[in-house]
Amino acid sequence: MGKPGRSHWNAHSCPALGRCPAVGGCDETHMQERLTRCGKCFADSMRKVDVWNWCNLSEFIVYYEDLTNCTRVQSSAAGCHWPNPPAQTFIVGIHRRFFANCTMDRARWEDPPEEVLIPLIALPVLLTVAVAGLVVWRSKHAGQLL
């Protein structure tokens, strides 16, 4: 499937806002309900992306941006600041659901075998000693030509 265009939903249209923010502050229960709607919209959008492309950010970045904006708007609509721990937990859940198999292959560094390592260490040490010896010898015999 090709790269997505602008999503069919956004933070304002997909989850119906329904009510105003709580006057007394953050209504976490209401925010969780709203975030669930954001997650449903994201899941619907991700169905357009082939599963084997879920680890390719360029295939779903528009949908992910919409999810982020949705969580921000819905948190604010519930009278909560953003980011906040429940919203972060929600987003981590989304990551576990959709991106659990998207691990970064990191190279595991290990020392080369001794047959390679010893010459790589010994050669510069021996060259340094040889050049230092040559400099000392040359300084003692500065008046003589080679």
UniProtKB/TrEMBL annotation:
InterPro entries: RAMP, RAMP_sf. The keyword Lipid biosynthesis does not apply. Pfam families: RAMP (PF04901). GO terms for molecular function: coreceptor activity. It is a single-pass type I membrane protein. The keyword Ligase does not apply. GO terms for cellular component: cell surface; plasma membrane; receptor complex. GO terms for biological process: calcium ion transport; cellular response to hormone stimulus; G protein-coupled receptor signaling pathway; intracellular protein transport; protein localization to plasma membrane; receptor internalization; regulation of G protein-coupled receptor signaling pathway. Its main location: membrane. It is found in: Cell membrane. The chain crosses the membrane at residues 116-137. Belongs to the RAMP family. This is Receptor activity-modifying protein 3.
